[in-house]
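Bug report (template v2)

What were you trying to do?
Predict the complex of my protein with zinc ion.

What happened?
Run completed; filing so the output is reviewed.

Input:
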Amino acid sequence: MENCLFCKIVRKEIPSRTVFEDDAVLAFYDVNPQAPVHILVIPKTHRGGFLEMKEKEDPSLEGYLMSVIRKIAREKGLDQKGFRLVINQGSDGGQTVFHLHYHLLGGRAMAWPPG
Ligand code: 5GP
Ligand code: ZN
């Protein structure tokens, strides 16, 4: 999408610190980290959010995103003490960028419930 921030990051119009990239998925460090490790994992194809994934076409993409997240979590050593995986959806969810992204947060103990 033309004016989507994360599509611009996919197209390298906005720089980011890449963690992982292939044809379908991009993972990069959050510019405003909320934990010592804070990585955003996104599909390269624009989807506005979790609810905007397409029921028929996207299940395999969702599964693939999960397998990439698992790989990154292990590579970053987050399999030792754990991590939190977050999707913010819509205004109550605190979503500010309307391109689906998973927050992978680790390197410190997380509070529960979240604020
Ligand atoms: P949301 O609130 O939509 O779930 O999360 C959006 C995330 O994108 C925030 O954690 C924010 O810090 C991050 N973010 C916003 N703009 C940029 C940017 O230009 N580059 C990177 N790497 N992260 C960004
Ligand atoms: Zn987008």
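What did the reviewer find?
Helices lie at 5-10, 59-75, 78-81, 90-93. The chain has a mean pLDDT of 97.
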